[in-house]
Specification:
The complex is a heterodimer.
Chain A (H helix, E strand, L loop, with lengths): L1 H21 L4 H4 L2 H7 L3 E7 L6 H16 L4 E2 L2 E9 L7 H11 L4 E3 L4 H14 L2 E4 L16 E3 L4 H6 L1 H7 L4 E8 L1 H16 L3 E9 L6 H10 L3 E5 L2 H13 L8 E4 L18 E4 L8 H14 L5 H19 L7 H10 L2 E3 L2 E5 L5 E11 L2 E12 L9
Chain B lengths: L2 H31 L7 H19 L2 H22 L9 H23 L15 E3 L5 E3 H23 L1 H11 L1 H6 L4 H23 L9 H16 L4 H21 L7 H12 L9
Antiparallel strand pairs in B: 1-2
The chains are: A alpha/beta, B mainly alpha.
């Protein structure tokens, strides 16, 4: 970043000087675009997120987090005022190209922020690869975005699906579990999380004895739970989310498996559902890039500021939105707000060290966070941090040639 | 799979089938007997679940909540029939599809306004909150078995109502020839109002009684809607017996499919439907 800063600084100084020499008559033609831009026009930020449907709350949390990051910088990023343009993507992959084109073609935004649903993310990727518009994805963990489909203008501030389960292999080994069963929905995110776990667990000498799938978004688990009881693995690892996660946790307990075969999972299994499941999740351990009770100065300050501004408790989605704001700020500061210098913005973001509520992180070559994965344990209504399960875990970014 | 686990899976399949019957019984009645294509069936299911959740958290008791909620859903059904559906009996099915699709959107929005977008859970009633151990590490929740009992009772009651009572006779007659029944001096309008209200109440009741097993979530209705139509189509339109047979078939096929051929588990139900429709286009117990 510093090298980049210096270049820009030198350029600006030079231009300022030349403008002064040229004098009043030539101001209009000689003033460089950088200075002109910094003074005129607002920076257009396109928010393409779900504001209706099952993921509506996630869209709101991300938006709130992003706006908090902007507010903390006096309502501006690198001196530029922000104009927000929002599009509700309805978590509908079929409408993704049309929706992102609204922002890119109609509104000519400088940067696109979105979205939650992985299918929509992949729909956006096609359009944004062609247009080259800066894109920061604050959630959807589809591996391909920072893998086979990666591009210089693609950035993610959340996680890849692979990352959320990879550290569990180490965790299970440390607890002495030698065999495991993975259970999830049969769709891309579930399969990627299964792969992440399998790789991590087998590296530690563990054996994944069976992969169990149920069609997405079905929530009738009885047959598969019976199958688990007949296999008798040392541990069960699961990924479900939202209502499906709540139902799975309750069914696991009702089938009498809880307490007999320990349950682990991707962090989304126990995020946002603890109020709904009573004591069914108590003691379940998961890995994720954020946790309750991190007890760092940054996290406390963030939680306080968020609660004060929005009268809501922040969650992992709010953190990801907040970091999208922080990452964009870092990129823009590197070019003093001149977003037209896209290469400069990208370099600025690549070099950024994000001081996040989740802890510090940087970007991998493929622009996915290299971050600590926490081991969390459900205690009451919290996913309490049990410490770092994997320091600075990077997604393998398979197939990324950019 | 040894014999013990085979028998447990058999139980799982039958139990899931009975649950499917419960969820689709309201649709069987409204679609099968009244001939209304009711896409909002899933919304009534959702309304039932949310009512059960909110009333149970107010009264602290699921049974009380269900007793309070059923009259509400009957009133809702009667009001909808009087105000909306009544005007569509003589129209093409397309109008019913449009109306009921619109109702899905209205109910989702109302749900969001009244109850919010959160996922909720309903506690299993204390009396039934136990498990029966089956093997060394697997037990069967008593509440699931209790629901199966309720489903069986409900199926018998429906069968008795439609086949053996005077009211049932009038309903069946009305379904075959509305004008003739009316000219014989029977208040067919009232009967249709009652049947529709019963259909709504059944869907909502399914949502209520199922709430402790599933979770109470936005869009939960759309997940059950498709499988309900599959049940009614396989069973034969208008047949309670057919709906029961289809539910059990689907329950068993899904259960064993997931365990034996997990790769194609998502398709099995639809393959089953295709086979039945090729073999008997009118469904298992449908009238030609």
């Amino acid at each position: 970043m510093s090298q980049n800063d210096k270049d820009i600084f030198a350029r600006r100084e030079f231009l300022k000087g030349s403008a002064a020499i040229a004098g009043a008559t030539a101001v209009g033609t000689l003033l460089p675009s950088a200075m002109a831009l910094a003074q005129q026009g607002k920076l257009k930020v396109g928010l393409m997120l779900p504001y209706t449907g099952t993921f509506a709350q996630l869209g709101v949390a991300i938006t709130n987090g992003f706006k908090l990051a902007v507010d903390e910088r006096g309502g501006k990023l690198a001196g530029r005022e922000i104009e927000f343009i929002t599009v509700d993507d309805e978590s509908n992959p079929a409408k993704a190209p049309e929706n992102v084109n609204k922002l890119v073609q109609r509104d000519k935004v400088d940067v696109v922020i979105g979205t939650v649903h992985s299918g929509v993310v992949m729909g956006m990727a096609k359009v944004l690869k062609e247009s080259g518009t800066l894109w920061i994805n604050p959630n959807g963990g589809a591996g391909a975005m920072t893998g086979a489909a990666c591009a210089p203008n693609f950035f993610r501030t959340s996680f890849s699906n692979w990352q959320t389960t990879h550290a569990l292999g180490k965790v299970l080994k440390a607890k002495g579990h030698k065999t495991a069963v993975f259970i999830t929905w049969k769709y891309a995110a579930g399969e990627e999380m299964m792969e992440g776990f399998k790789e991590g667990f087998e590296k530690e000498g563990g054996k994944l004895v069976k992969e169990l799938y149920t069609p997405f978004p079905q929530v009738e688990f009885q047959a598969l739970l019976t199958e688990i009881a007949s296999i008798k693995p040392d541990a069960v690892v699961a990924f479900f989310a939202g209502g499906g996660a709540a139902k799975f946790l309750k069914d696991y307990q009702a089938a009498g498996l809880k307490g007999k075969i320990p349950l682990y999972g991707s962090g989304f299994l126990t995020d946002g559902v603890l109020d709904a499941v009573g004591d069914a999740a108590e003691g379940v351990e998961t890995t994720l890039h954020y946790a309750d009770g991190l007890d760092t100065k940054k996290d406390k300050a963030f939680r306080l500021a968020y609660a004060k501004t929005f009268k809501l408790q922040p969650d992992v989605y709010a953190v990801q939105g907040y970091d999208a704001g922080q990452l964009l700020a870092a990129g823009l500061e590197a070019v003093k707000g001149n977003v037209a210098d896209k290469v400069g913005v990208i370099k600025g973001m690549e070099a950024a060290k994000i001081d996040s509520p989740r802890g510090q992180w940087t970007l991998s070559k493929a622009h996915n966070p290299v971050q600590d994965m926490y081991l969390r344990k459900v205690v009451g209504k919290e996913n309490k941090s049990q410490g770092v399960a994997w320091k600075a875990l990077a997604d393998p970014a398979r197939g990324c040639k950019a | 799979m040894d014999l013990a686990f085979f028998l447990i899976q058999l139980l799982n399949g039958l139990q899931y089938g009975l649950l499917l019957f419960l969820v689709s019984s309201g649709l069987t009645l409204v679609f099968g007997i009244m001939g209304i294509i009711n896409l909002a069936h899933g919304s009534f299911y959702m309304v039932g679940a949310y009512l059960a959740w909110s009333l149970a958290s107010m009264t602290g008791n699921l049974a009380t909540a269900i007793l309070l909620a059923i009259p509400l859903t009957v009133v809702l059904g009667m009001a909808l029939e009087r105000l909306l559906f009544r005007h569509l009996y003589s129209r093409d099915h397309l109008y019913q599809v449009l109306l009921t699709y619109g109702l899905i959107l209205v109910f989702e929005e109302l749900r969001s306004l009244i109850w919010g977008d959160d996922v909720h859970g309903v506690a299993v009633p204390a009396l039934l909150n136990a498990s029966i151990p089956l093997t060394e590490n697997l037990s069967y929740p008593v509440y699931r078995l209790a629901i199966s009992g309720v489903c069986l009772l409900l199926a018998l009651a429906l069968y008795f109502l439609i086949q053996k009572t005077r009211l049932g006779m009038m309903i069946r007659a009305g379904a075959s020839n509305r004008d003739m029944v009316q000219s014989l001096g029977i208040d067919i309008k009232l009967i249709y109002t009652l049947v529709f209200a019963l259909g709504v109440a059944l869907a909502a009741f399914a949502g209520m009684i199922n709430a402790p097993l599933s979770s109470v979530t936005p869009n939960m209705g759309s997940h059950v809607l498709i499988i309900c139509f599959v049940v009614v189509v396989i069973g034969g339109i208008g047949s309670v017996k057919g709906a029961m047979a289809a539910s059990l078939m689907i329950g068993l096929a899904e259960t064993f499919g997931q365990v034996l051929v997990p790769e194609v588990a998502g398709m099995i139900v639809y393959v089953l439907m295709a086979i039945v429709l090729v073999w008997r286009p009118e469904g298992l117990f449908g009238r030609k």
